[in-house]
Amino acid sequence: MAHPLHTADVLGGGSTDIGMPLRHGLDLIPRAQPDQAPATKKDFTSDQEVRWCPGCGDYIILNTVQSFLPELGLRKENIVFISGIGCSSRFPYYLDTFGMHSIHGRAPAIATGLATSRPDLSVWVITGDGDALSIGGNHLIHALRRNVNLTILLFNNRIYGLTKGQYSPTSEPGKITKSTPVGSVDMPFNPVSLALGAEATFVARSLDNDRAHLSEILRAAAAHRGTALVEIYQNCPIFNDGAFDAIKDRDQQEARLVHLTHGEPVRVGAEGSRQVLVRSTDGRLRFVAETERTESDGQIVVHDRHDPDPSQQFAISRIDDSRMTHVPMGIFRQVERPTYDDLVRGQLDAAVAAAGAPATDADLAALIAGKDTWTVA
């Protein structure tokens, strides 16, 4: 547990300091009773028929989440999944927890209200690249900058699947789809870079078919207090099949996947052909052969996910490109900052302590009416 950090330490002082200590992500959420049998995957599996296309990557993610949730040790009645619109947003139906299938792009806004009013809940947001980054773009970045205590899983398949195959905000340039018959001219979003630019306190990326890695990322995200964004590369076998084959193929993985490990140099490749990331004198990052590196190549980049300055984490996210020449995977950023919902509740508690809570209905009515009200005959 980190030392207590007051609001003024983060917000620059002034009247906003209400002495709010940092907390673990699950601190306020009731645990399952010790005399209860340990929960299993079956306890988190609903009776609803799963209605995704055969081979959809969503199946793997669902299975991974259902298997992971018992590890939290929480009552399932205190876990909530909120989604927007899209294939991924059917997720809440298939989990035996509370949930809400909400409106297009607005899941972060609804989840913000719930997390602020109900600190006893573990609130998760399920969204896709279209839902989160097109119509929901504003809601996403404001949830990230506010640092609401949410865990956001962003399924990125680089296509609109539910509406049958239009290009999305993460589709690569030149992508031919039903809505771009001669190729997309849009520059795509990099969701990790976007989150780091918004100074999200937890940002990570994983693959749908790497269950061990995804489970590890989910553990860290759930334990984080604040907004945790996990981008998951997910295959759509109908409208964008093979979008991530370059990093799923065993023969290409080692040369392309950059596994981020805190405190370790950023490397890619197998033994004998390994490359290391360096920062050149002009500030640019590039890979050089580890065995041939000289001082003139630049300083080796060591990954620090706890660095409060996101500049290097952002730079690492930019070595990714739409061709997936090198793709960083893992936790990019994991820092602590007071959460929006904790701060709001702290202000409300302070106001009640200073003024006192209304003792009767009449007192409450007088408070609502205020001093500047009048009756019109």
TrEMBL record:
SUPFAM superfamilies the record matches: Thiamin diphosphate-binding fold (THDP-binding)
Pfam families: TPP_enzyme_C
InterPro entries: 2-oxoacid:Fd_oxidoreductase, THDP-binding, TPP_enzyme_TPP-bd
EC number: 1.2.7.1
MF annotations from Gene Ontology: magnesium ion binding; pyruvate synthase activity; thiamine pyrophosphate binding
Keyword set, alphabetical order: Oxidoreductase, Pyruvate
Start and end residues of each Thiamine pyrophosphate enzyme TPP-binding domain: 85-232
Broadest EC class assigned to this enzyme: oxidoreductase
Gene3D superfamilies xrefs: 3.40.50.970
Coiled coil regions, renumbered to chain: none
Ribonucleoprotein recorded as keyword: no
The name this protein goes by in its record: Putative Ferrodoxin oxidoreductase beta subunit (Putative pyruvate synthase (PorB))
Organism in which the protein naturally occurs: Nostocoides jenkinsii Ben 74
